[in-house]
Amino acid sequence: MIQRIQSVYLLLAGIVSAISIFFPMQPGRAWVVASGLIAIACFLTVFAFRNRMRQKRMCGLWMTLCSLQVIAFAVFAFHNKEYDWSILLPLVSELFLWLASRAIARDEALVRAADRIR
Length: 118
Known about the structure:
This protein is an all-alpha fold. The protein is built from four helices and no strands. The protein has one domain (about 5-115).
């Protein structure tokens, strides 16, 4: 479970999302709920390691939610002309989710290649 690199990426994405809850530039309660949901979802996705395709779909869903969060945050920041470095936290989380998705795809390709050899 934890020995796979995608688990490390998912844990890092969850930690970054959890950290982003506590930063001041937040457009209301929706930001906290979205960050909390992404953090919890990332931690739960780690435990879907037996079904890699489901894990990859979950990563795609969380990346979409992260993208929506980044867009909403950018619109809020540009509208109020308040720029803060905390807009980068969801981007970092999305980067880790993308890396996890790539690692899951590579792992699935490796398993399929090993099954073909048998």
